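Running co-folding for pyridoxal-5'-phosphate.
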Amino acid sequence: MTSAYPGRMWTLSPGKNIPLSARSVLSVDLGALRANWAKLNQVSGRAECAGVVKADAYGLGLEPIARALTNEGCKTFFVATIDEGRRARMVQPGATIYILDGLLPGAETNYTGFDLKPVLSSLAEIRDWAAYSRSRGRRLPAAIHIDTGMNRMGLPESEVEQLAAEPGLLDNFEVCLIVSHLACADEPGNAMNEMQRQRFEYLRAKLPPAPASLANSGGTFLGNGYHFDLVRPGIALYGGRAHETGPNLMKSVVTCAARIMQVRDVGVGASIGYGATYRVQRPSRIATIGVGYADGFLRALSVGTGEAGPVGFIGDYPVPIVGRVSMDFITVDVTDVPPEMTRRGAWVEVMGPRITVDDLTDKAGTIGYELLTRLGQRVHRVYEDGGRT
Ligand SMILES: *Cc1c(COP(=O)(O)O)cnc(C)c1O
């Protein structure tokens, strides 16, 4: 099998790998995920390629994603929270796991108990970790995050200088990585990238030598100068676009489909759904399918009369979304689809290789990250691993 192309899966699998009770399905192609990691690992050259699996691996399921990445050779993972770190640890006993949140006051034992490394984000956190390490009589490992322009997390220059003036502080624990984060890596032409890269070089030179990491997905594609010792891609692993412009070199990982609950014939001028924002221009057949904004299908994807909205698929037939997205349902125009393919229970692909996360979010005025991380728990997850191609 080469991809999670739904034509096969959706028509054959309910009752097999998809329960008959599932009204919507998210299929995650772990083979494509692994191929994406391998590609990023190749692009990053001599730098190590980690995997960012925060927010339940961008909504796709932390455990199966982390396992698949490990099988492909990934040894280092980044999550946001301690809870996510614990979950990652349960399935990855041998991995290096960093907590991007840094150190929550008083929570020190939560890190050591699960062999999690905090990404220390301020001098205060560094002092706490140093004190805790001293109290344990061990040089406990941690990363240090320095701010090169985001003004969100990380030590500002003044704190880097204070730290440099107190070298004894860093003797208390093991600095295994120095990290910073790019603000504009999705825009390859943005001058901020080079500015941050230079600032990173300048600031980290003030500290004792340690492995360094600057690049997220976008940064990984900015060239060797951004790779340092380790790259930290997230969105690109999951098939999302790393750069706003240019081709997306990643394979599609996610396919989402929902079942037809009901089909009806409507005459010219009839309105569809809440607000009656869509009026039918020709005698039409409208299918109501089982996915809505409660499942993460953004309400901003609603389509009014005369608007060009997102287009799903039944087999190879395009089915435009019409009317408002409601909590539990969306409506699609199936007038041009052979009736035997629009029976109650048939699957409609609403996200996948042909209607990508980025296609959808461009229309909704948001980014793939948001759509993926909002996919709700009502959507049944299936994982396929047909191997890499
Ligand atoms: C989320 C995150 C990443 C991954 O970013 P992508 O744009 O998804 O590749 C890398 N580093 C840090 C610090 C992050 O918070």
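Result summary
The domain at 30-238 is CATH 3.20.20.10 (TIM Barrel).
Residues 52, 54, 100, 181, 216-218, 232-236 surround pyridoxal-5'-phosphate (CB under 6 Å).
Job closed.
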